[in-house]
Structure formats: structure tokens, C-alpha cells
Amino acid sequence: MRTIIVDDEKQIRDGLKILLSSIDDIQIVGEASNIKEAIEKINELKPDLVLLDIQIKDKTGFDMLDELTSHSFKLIFITAFNEYAIKAFKYNAFDYLLKPIDPDELNNTIERLKEQSSFDSRKQMEVFKENKELNRIVIKTTEQIYVLDLEEIVHCRADQGYTHFYTKNRKHILSSKTLKEYNEMLPKEKFIRVHQSHLVNWEYVSSYEKKGELILKNSERIPVSVRRRHIVAELLN
User: Fold this and answer.
1) How many Å apart are CA 219 and CA 5, to the nearest integer?
2) Interatomic CA distance for residues 148 and 122, integer angstroms
């Protein structure tokens, strides 16, 4: 999980980095000491997880969340104040840890978070395998749960650990699951992986340029990787 630490005390940030370094699958990609810097880092780095202090100089972690236009990361509050717990969970926090941080408590929280993420992915893949007639998919973001008919999905684009969904009515949904996971879930007869970063609903393909681009019915252009061009060419024959 790509992780950002937001705390105005360097000593706390350094301590968290040491604790997290011993936990598998955690990658510290950034840190911030104030709200402005935190928002910039989150928008740039698109983390899977944010460890967020509540009192940050003259603002709060809640202020940061309110200023973000949208986000799809998991959230763990780290604070010395226990009176904000109820408010924290209203912001969809996964957990609320009190300083000084107990290493075992932090490790247990991260493990539960990883188990939940893994369970959500497995559960949806099992549903698709058991019911081949299923024609809808559930996409969860931090703000909403979408139920999409597969025929609504035009294409999907990978963005590091995230997946952007683009629909026929031009709705844009950002999921925290990877394109690889969706490639395994979605039916192969409809959705073709034409590039490491692109999964296309074949019903929306208008034409193919042999230089390596698919032209969709909405005029979007999707690159086709060199090693997948023969697959696309065979499908069009």
C-alpha cells in the first residue's frame, strides 16, 4: 500500500516510518507537515493509505479532508486526542490510534486493513466466477458505491494502484482496485486488455489504426501495446 504520513511533528513522522518499515506491503511514498503540503502530495502521489494527525498547526486533519475534491485512500487517524473519535469515523476512517503509537496496535490495524482489501477483491471475483450471466459490477469509492451494467463501461485506465472507469454517459469513477484485479473479474469475451494501462469494452471499438491505436465510438483513442497488436488484429478479422 502506497502510504503518506501527515503530521506536523517530524519526530512522529520519523517514528511512524520506522514502525511501518517492518510491515510487509507498506511503501512510504511521501510525508507532509501541513495541510497545504498534504493536499499537494495526495493529489500528486495518489496514495492507498494516509496516516493523518488531527491537530496540524492551526488546522485539523478534517480541514484537509474537506478541502480535497475527492479521494479514494484508506484513512487512519493518529492523534493525542481521544475526543475526536466519533467525528473521525464519520469521515470514514478505518481506525483511530492514540499517541504514543503502540507498535503492535499499528501492526494489527494494518493487517486488518490488508485483510479487508483482499476479502473485498476475492468476494467480487468469486461472484463473477460463480455466475457467468452476471452483467453488473460493484465499484466502491470512499464516497459512494456504484453499480454499473457492464454495457455502460467504455474502457478502464490504470493509474498506479488505481483504476479509472469511463462510461458511455461520460461518468468518471476512480476505484482503488488495480486494473489487474478488474481484468480478472470482467468477462474476457467483452473486455480486452490492449495495453498494460488500458482495458477496453470491445462493443465500443469503432476502428483500429495499425500504427497502434484503437478508435472508440466516442472518438477516444486508446493505445495498443506492440505485443498485443496481433490479438487486436485477429479480433478484427
Assistant:
1) 41
2) 19
Establish if 127 belongs to a structural domain: no
Give which of 179, 204, 194, 193 is closest to 224, Cα–Cα: 194
Domain that holds residue 61: 2-121
Q: Is residue 112 located within the same domain as residue 163?
A: no
Write out the three cell numbers for 132: 457467468
Residues 57 and 99 occupy one common structural domain: yes
Handedness of CA 81, 83, 85, 87 (dihedral sign): negative
Q: Give which of 82, 76, 72, 58 is closest to 19, Cα–Cα.
A: 76
Model confidence over 148-182: pLDDT tens digits? 889 999 999 998 878 999 999 888 898 878 898 88
Q: Give me 60's grid cell.
A: 485539523
Q: What angle do CA 191, 178, 25 make, to 5 degrees?
A: 155
Residue 8's CB: how many other CB atoms inside 10 A?
17
The pLDDT assigned to 131 comes to: 46
CA separation for the pair 6, 148 (Å, rounded): 34
Same domain, 101 and 158: no
Residues 228 and 169 occupy one common structural domain: yes
pTM of the model: 0.53
Contacts of 210 (CB under 8 A, 6+ apart): 229, 233
Domain of 69: which CATH number?
A: 3.40.50.2300
